[in-house]
Amino acid sequence: MSTHHDCLDDLDKNATKIMWKLAVPSKISIFSWRMFHNLLPTRFNLLMRGIDLDATCKLCREDVEDDTHIFWSCSCVTMVFADSCFSFLRQQHHKSCKGIIRNLISHGNVDMLQEYLVMCWRVWGMRNSFYQTGTAPDFSSVPNWCTKYIHQLKTTNQQRFTGFGQCLLVTKWKRPPHGFCKLNVGAGRGKCGKKMGFGAVLRDSNGSFIAARSWQQAGHVDKLLMEVNAILLGIKWLLEMQVKNVEIESDSLIVVRYLTGNDRLVSSLGHLVDVIRSLGASFTVILFKHVLRTGNRPAHHLAKLTAISSGGCFTWWQHPPPCIGHLLCTDNISVTRSRLNGSHI
Ligand SMILES: [Zn+2]
């Protein structure tokens, strides 16, 4: 049983990675991620969140509108997915969009996955405008629209997305360019979930430690909000210190994509992103970067420890907190090694 769960866990981690690497704009990646985790405000999900409404799909009026309904089985949208390339999916009974995505990924067909996600994104947009305006959408136009859209993405944006794909490979901490500081930020939650910790570690272009700060807050919010909040706290601290040129690095790819994309989000997350962008205008140069957790250990560790500590906001100058000393050393060793390796080439 546990092996089966482990396999699904691996598949899901893999699915998330693949979805983020797809050559689609960040608004579609974000949508896909929310769909995969069943976080879209379908009528069923709204009902589950305690909103008093009739969860029946208003398009077909035949069934409850959950994610599988609107992105697969609703009689108004089935023609969208009627293409023969999806026919193998028809032979199975899918209980969730997650199941459909897992299925597409286990078939190893990334193009088909991309097509399915773009189609769902389009369907969701048309569904939303139907709920806003009451005008019946023409879903039969979706397949052609998607074909053109994907073709356009492939031809015009190839360069941009190829560039982005490379940043997924950043696994180690790297020194910022000369004249820049780098602030790594992280967020963590205590075991009982009642406290959140945030950590920020500032280093210069030699890789030397400048300062670190930790914050503790009561309560808990979802992981994305925590990660955005870590960046917000970090930026406010940088402004206090009057740092002008900075790279801010987080291990949350989704948050970095929010911040570097042009999409406007309507949510509490969107509001925080707007605040960060406006504070960003006070810097001469501010860059948001993603690094894998392996390259963000000191900030992450500081955040985790802060979440379970007795509390408060602390700042360390010149000498790092002992709890992260060894992790900072490891970062510097890996930096030195990669420089040495570089000099041999
Ligand atoms: Zn329906």
UniProtKB/TrEMBL annotation:
Check the record and name the Gene3D superfamilies matching this protein: Ribonuclease H-like superfamily/Ribonuclease H (3.30.420.10)
Q: Which Pfam families match?
A: RVT_3, zf-RVT
Concerning InterPro entries, the annotation shows: RNase_H-like_dom_plant (IPR044730), RNase_H-like_EbsB-rel (IPR052929), RNaseH-like_sf (IPR012337), RNaseH_domain (IPR002156), RNaseH_sf (IPR036397), RVT-Znf (IPR026960)
The RNase H type-1 domain, residue ranges: 197-305
- Where does the source fall among the domains of life? Eukaryota
Q: Which residues form the Reverse transcriptase zinc-binding domain?
A: 14-78
Its protein name is Uncharacterized protein
Q: What is the lineage of its organism?
A: Eukaryota, Viridiplantae, Streptophyta, Embryophyta, Tracheophyta
